[in-house]
Structures are given as C-alpha cells and as structure tokens.
Amino acid sequence: MNVLIVGSGGREHALAYKISQSEKVDKIFCIPGNAGISSLVTACFDYDVSDVKSLVNFAKSELIDLTVVGPEVPLVNGIVDEFEKEGLRVFGPNKKAAQMEGSKIFAKRLLEKYNIPTAKSFVFDDYDKALDYINKNTPPFVIKADGLAAGKGVMIASDKNTAEESVKDCFIKRKFKEAGKKVLIEEFLSGDEVSILSFVDGETILPMTPAQDYKKVFDGDKGLNTGGMGAYSPVPIVTDEVYETITSQILLPTLDALKNEGIIYKGVLYAGLIFTSDGPKVLEFNVRFGDPETQAILPRLKNDLVDLIDAVVDGNLSDKKLEWRKEKCVSVVLASGGYPEDYSTGYEIKGLEKLEKMDGISVFHAGTSFKDGKVVTAGGRVLNISALGSSFEEARKKAYAAINEIYFENMHYRKDIAKT
Ligand code: AMP
Ligand code: GLY
Questions:
Q1: Is 293 in the pocket of ligand 2 (CB under 6 A)?
Q2: Where in the sequence is the domain holding 377, given as residue range(s)?
C-alpha cells in the first residue's frame, strides 16, 4: 500500500521509520517532511499542511491507501473529516474527537462529568472575573489558555502578580489570540509525570508502554518549557499494578465517556498524567503521538505499526496485542542554542554518517533540511538520538556516545535525560 505521513518533526521521522519496516507498504510520501525523512521515504513534498484540499488531491492522485497525521493542528482543524468525506483512509481523530486537545475546557468538562481524576479548575472568559478569583484564592495557580498554543499555553504562577500577568497575557494582550479567549485556572498538582499513549479504534483502547519526557530546556528541569528535550521508555514508577490502576481509573473511563457523548475516537489518545499523593490524575490529553515520546516508544515496538494503524482505522483493535522489546530506550534532543526563544539555523550538521554504523542507535531528524547537498539545521529542535540498551544506564551511555560524534554550531542538549 501507499502511505502518506503528514508532519515534519522527529515524531514523523520515527513514524516513517516504523512504517518503512512494514511488509504491507510499497511507497511512503511525507508532507512536508525533513532531510532525514526524505532520505528514507519515496518523496517529500513541501505543501502547506493547513491546505487540506491540496492534501486530499495529492492523496487521490498518488493513490494513497492510508494517511497518517502527526501534528495536532491539522487534526483539530478537521483534516480527518475532509479525508473521510472523500472516501480516503486516514489515521487520527475527527474534528469533534480532536477537541480533547483543541479545547482544554472541553476535556476538563468531560473528565469532571464522568468523575475521572484531574485537577480542580474554574473557567473564565473575562479578565476581571479571573483577577477576582486570583485575589480571593491562594497561589500557586495553573493558568491555561483553552485552545492550541504550540505548547506555550500553560503558565504556572507561584504568586499573585505572576498569575495576574498570565491572565493579562490571555485577555488583554491576547498573546494566544482566539486560543486564549477562554482560560482555565487550575489547582496546582505535584508529582511525577508520565505520558501514556493509547491506540483507540472507537470501541477498544490499547495502551502503549509508558514514556516520560523532559519539558524544560536545561538540566535539572531549569529554564523555559520546550516541545520536549528528551524522553525515555518504559517508566519504572509505572509498575504493572500502577498500569492497571491507570487503565481502570482513567483510560477505560475516558473511552466510555467519549462513547457516551457519541464521540467515535479513532487514532492515538495521549494522556499526560501526574502521580499525586491521591493517585494518578489527568493533566491533559493530546490527540496524537507525543513528540519526543514517540522517538523513545517506537524503537521498542515489536508489532508492525501499519498493522496496528489499519486495525484502528478498520475497527479491529480488539484482535491486537502490543509487544515490546525488553530493552530500554533513551532519546535525547539536540537543539539549536537559544531554543525555545530565538535561534539561528542553516548550520551544517557533521558526523551523521558515523551514527549509521552504531548498533542500537536511531537518529530521528526534526528541524533539518538539505543545502548544497549537505544536511543543515532548520529548526529549534534539530535531531533526536534514540538508543536501545539492556539497562537505562547502557541506553544513556550509548545515546551520549553517539551525540559526541555530532556537531553543529550552537548545539545544545540536556545531559541528564534518564539520569537517576
Ligand atoms: P499540559 O499542556 O496541560 O500538559 O501542561 C504542560 C505542563 O504544565 C505539564 O506537563 C505539567 O508539567 C504542567 N502542568 C499542567 N497542569 C498542571 C497542574 N494542574 N499542576 C501542576 N503542573 C501542571
Ligand atoms: N511531549 C509533549 C507533546 O507531545 O505534546
């Protein structure tokens, strides 16, 4: 079959790498892709991902049998509905289901209605009322823009002044535009965080192995939030018993809640969880594979990914069982210095060929492109170096040994991924 992958990050390169291993697949195309993906697949095309009509036309003209959508923006904008209307097979939730990520208020209301554990929260659509709430309550506050904000819409305020600035950012400065028109102010929870991604076919939920990502830019969780600076899988705190608790108290009730609301959820549902002293609670849902979690999860997946995706699209997931390698996976992001704020691009990436020969190492490109036949940096997050090892220590050592071979100007990475 012919597969189209939509997206351009490390997640999409990891998807392309797993999809390319499937015996079911003839050609893979990616829109828009990056340098690493284009070296792996049949071809990449630089179309605008928000131009769904062009994507539909492409899928028809190239006889695409399956489209896999990586990022949240096209999903929330309804790309799946448009493809389905044209009779095209596509992997991901439809517009209604994608509200689980597209509106934090929508997700929160669902959790509350069905008594699924999550932080207590209040909704505001007005600056004065939000300010009044802040003045009458005790910090810390977690302030969340309702809509998509490229990972920047969550602000943790440890004092009232910061909280006031955050609601000002949303309502007065309109920093998040329409996404900040409504705001959630949430109780602050503390504990370890874990991401559980599940395949869902509308009826059955099949949770994957857990992963943990590192959101802050510097070692020791210092500095600004990023899209993610690294990840590892599995997560030792998620014992079999904890996994059972998460499944029975959070994942299955969420699927039941969606069904009860008449929402047929198909695709990957990503639950961002926090382990509080009261047990696991939901911080957020995403409606897609996580980035960089996917780069630490897929190298451990033994199943044919296309087989699983087909099962989701066709509603046969109950016949499937996920199988995982015992090895641990550690994935480290190499970023452009300055990211997540301003950074320069266009620097040559040296040493990539040395990693091709290294056992257990996968290099997933994110912001890379070709210039004069050379691979150059083209984004904030540039590469993900994923390593498999029999222990976390071994996987870590392999990942960092591989990184030692890579060089580009102003390269920055965290040195404490999966460090205990
Ligand atoms: P979200 O996009 O909702 O996952 O939020 C991004 C990050 O903000 C999470 O991974 C947490 O680290 C943090 N966060 C979100 N909600 C809360 C909360 N209620 N209490 C503490 N931290 C939170
Ligand atoms: N790793 C966080 C995300 O994919 O949103």
A1: yes
A2: 328-412
